[in-house]
Amino acid sequence: MSSLENLLGKLRQAVGTDQVLTALEDLIPYSFDGTAALRQMPGCVVFAQTTDQVAAVLKLANETKTPVVTRGTGTGLSGGSLPIPDSIVLCTAKMDRVLEVDQKNLTLLAEAGTTTQAVADAAGAVNLFYPPDPGSMKISTIGGNVAENSGGLRGLKYGVTRNYVMGMEAVLPQGEVMWLGNKCVKDVAGFSLKDLFVGSEGTLGVITRVLLKLIPKPAAKRTMLATYNRMDQAAETISAIIAAQIIPCTLEFLDRTTIGCVEDYVHIGLPLDCEALLLMETDGHPAVVAEEAERMVKICREHGCREVRIAKDEDEANQLASARRTAFSALARVGPTTILEDATVPRSELAPMIRFIQSVAVNYKLRIGTFGHMGDGNLHPTFLTDERNHAEMERVEKAMKEIFSEALRLGGTITGEHGVGVAKKRFLPQALGETSIRVMRELRRALDPNGILNPGKMFD
Q: Which of 126, 257, 434, 457 could, after both became Cys, cross-link 369 (CB 3.0–4.6 A)?
């Protein structure tokens, strides 16, 4: 019996014969994630349903030095769950239970494979609120959100996933299980190891359970949509709203290309001749919401907006919000390959950065739609291309390099929420510096001396 056959036999014993996939047609769906133009076949796929099974799989993999790539539902946009040859894809999607909603402590405990939407729904069922809302929240898993430190439309006011992780259960590569954090609001005992695992992209351990902070559900919300003839007017509006000490829960942006694609997709009456669109939402106490909405409309008009639409009810609010929430889907209909990128700059540099992206599109003869979280400076330049066109893909690569370099020059970063994975690891030394990379390598080596967890991600 070969070593691979022997390992497969032990894996089947650990999780059950029907939970191990080896047939080519079964492996294909696990050979890629949400990142365009990246795919690689694994050796096998293993579905774990308990923490003990995760520990058993990791122990076997560590003993045989077999690479393990942890995967939820594969919605990542940086190649973070891309397999490597002969690796085990360890899928936690079947660990999908909400285990506890603690109303006294405002916490929720969920298994790693629970969808973000299921977490939000469980909180909402008891009139509580889980704010992080990545665009893929209906299908992305909470374990993946934690591993990537996912953001979302409400990040300006409420922050990202890290701000809501109070604890987690994680399995180290040797199969050891540890619990990090607790339900205490204040805890400064020892290193904050849970924060080390948030955003670690599956390179330090496998997250199996997550303890999340919940907050009271906002009593009211107001949604508005403003359109502009000039990009600078929209950027100046953002700056003026923040300077007025108003922190909306949502402050989103679409450029002309994205507006046209969205309107063609959802038909909600967006003007096709405007340069920029802002989606704004304020939430909280009804009186505060009414006052903030009035002030925001006034600021929009003072900075030259063409029109402000204010949602009359929840249905219209959802319709207006769909202009932003469907942006990626709308753009994806345009070309065979859609590459959704992620760069963040200080808010003061938004207008220059957007103009730079537009100039890059012209220089390289590419179609790029830009949208994103303008309130926190996180932009998503989206390349509408065709991976079969090798010459065009070479131009895409050059354009990406220029965009990330410019973001760094402006004091920004190469990723605000998608992670590094495979897609951006070549840019990480420029973003962090060699000393930071060395320290990260040493931390990784200390926890995973055999280098089995997600090899090739973040850095080699």
A: 257
Find, among 84, 53, 61, the residue nearest to 3 by Cα.
61
- pLDDT(25) > 80: yes
Those residues whose C-beta lies under 8 Å from the C-beta of residue 223, and which sit 6 or more positions away, are 250, 279, 280, 281, 310, 311, 316, 317, 320, 321
β-pairing verdict for 88-91 and 68-71: parallel
Please say if the pLDDT value at position 20 is more than 50: yes
For the chain, give every domain's residue range: 1-217+433-460, 220-328
Between CA 128 and CA 115 the distance in angstroms is 17
Q: How many residues does the chain have?
A: 460
Nearest to 193 by CA among 164, 159, 170, 160: 170
Secondary structure letter of residue 46 according to DSSP: E
Using CA atoms, how far apart are residues 347 and 374, in angstroms rounded to an integer?
A: 7
H or E segment and range at residue 26: helix 24-27
Do residues 82 and 424 make contact, with C-beta atoms less than 8 angstroms apart? no
Nearest Cα neighbor of 397 from 32, 31, 36 is 36
- State the Cα–Cα distance between residues 51 and 54, nearest whole angstrom: 5
Please name the fold of domain 220-328: Alpha-Beta Plaits (3.30.70)
pTM beyond 0.85: yes
Burial of 358 (0-12, 13-18, 19+ CB in 10 A): middle
How distant, in Å, are the alpha carbons of 37, 44, 180, 332, 414 from that of 394? Answer: 13, 32, 44, 20, 19
Distance CA 414, CA 412 (A): 7
CA gap 401, 354 in Å, rounded: 15
Mean pLDDT of the region 353-375: 94
